[in-house]
Amino acid sequence: MEFRIERTALTDAVAWAARVLPTRSPVPVLGGLLLEAADGRLTISGLDYEASARIEVAAETVRAGKVLVMGRRLLDVCRVLPEKVVECAVEGSRFSLTSDGARFGLAVLPLDDYPALPPLPAVLGEVDAEEFAAAVAHVAVAAGRDDALPTLTGIRLALDGDTMTLAATDRYRFAVRTLAWKPGADGAAADVVVSARRLTEIARSFGPGGGLVRLALDGGSAGFELAGMRTTVRLLDGRLPRHDKLFTMTGAVTAETDRAPLVEAVKRVAVVAEGGSPLHLTFSEGSVLLQAGYEDDVASQRLPAVLEGAVELTVAFNPGYLMDALGSFGTPVIRFGLMGPGQRAMVTGRTPGADTADPRPTTHQHLLMSAKPLL
Question: pTM to 2 decimals?
Answer without folding.
Answer: 0.91
